[in-house]
């Protein structure tokens, strides 16, 4: 029996949106999971990958029950002024998935046409963004956080931090009303994850001294495979955010790859200048910084803007990691994978540079009135105010996320310990999960004793 599509549904837009969402989902599972599993010390490979897998699963449940509506629903009236534009009213969305996709997406100029796909498509597309954010945050606390504390932290953080960020910038909230823009998550996802990961690293405490001194990747080729999935998965990350299979989606994909390639090359050159050797780990860091920095700008800048952002993304976070990262504060806080530098710094850089390079001729989509649509004008084109509001939004996200992350962790710490036990810190995966990533025989990291794997400390 043939069942016709609803009159509003455009099969091309719907197909692309679901495909883009799947690309973004692959960035988490398996992309980020195997990147972490390969780039950490062998004894933490399972735990690191599992933290991402768990986050992906639990966020889906909280997202459909209340997270989505908090990020994209009707505003909750907490008080006058900005208090009525911070977060949406929480409620489940499971009974309205067949309706036409709706969300209070703010516009800088013009009116968005109605989405041409069902709400279930929009809910899933936004979920995969919400899911990868705590996975990125995990990079700051790998190698010592109690997995039970992580199980509590992820759904609470996603609800009280991510959904609020999403509403303020994407759901028609306070920051979007100021005129701030974040094309695909430079602030909502990457600054949030980088700042929160850094705060979490400070609250949970550092890894064991021996782990901090020697945390060499256990399998760089596996890490590279995960990084490659991230890179190509980003085509859905940025290509899906016009919400239409249109020209801006294509431009965003090309801009994403241009900036990423140049950031990778720039970071590699910086490594060679400093040490005389090109580093694969460094190249992966440069790749990630390029992806992150172009994310808030991808559909708003032209190709020259993307190239400029790519160079900046390869140089500024490199300086941050290799110079600022050696200062007393950053040596004290054990940010395992440097998410502050690769995500917070790169995301902030991209967000501010969006205010610099945004080209008013780049239309995210056209409205029903010919010639009108969503575009942003940057400083290069005569609008310095865009830089100002981008900085204002950045400061709000940093302050709110840092404070809320600290509060959430302190409260969870009253229920379960935030740190793994001494035995778990010594033995890693075998003590936490009863599993290891590889069979171990005469390994310099493990001894086999009565059927158990114990690290040499």
From TrEMBL:
Gene3D superfamilies the UniProt entry points to: Ammonium transporter AmtB like domains
Chain ranges of the Ammonium transporter AmtB-like domain: 16-436
InterPro entries in UniProt: Ammonium/urea_transptr, Ammonium_transpt, Ammonium_transpt_CS, NH4_transpt_AmtB-like_dom
TM stretches of this protein: 20-39, 51-70, 122-142, 149-175, 187-206, 218-237, 249-268, 280-298, 304-325, 337-358, 393-416
Any Pfam family: Ammonium_transp
Cell compartments where the protein resides: Cell membrane; Membrane
Predominant place of localization: membrane
Membrane topology: Multi-pass membrane protein
Keywords, sorted A to Z: Ammonia transport, Membrane, Transmembrane, Transmembrane helix, Transport
Family that this chain belongs to: Belongs to the ammonia transporter channel (TC 1.A.11.2) family.
Designated name of the protein: Ammonium transporter
Species in which this protein is naturally found: Sulfobacillus thermotolerans
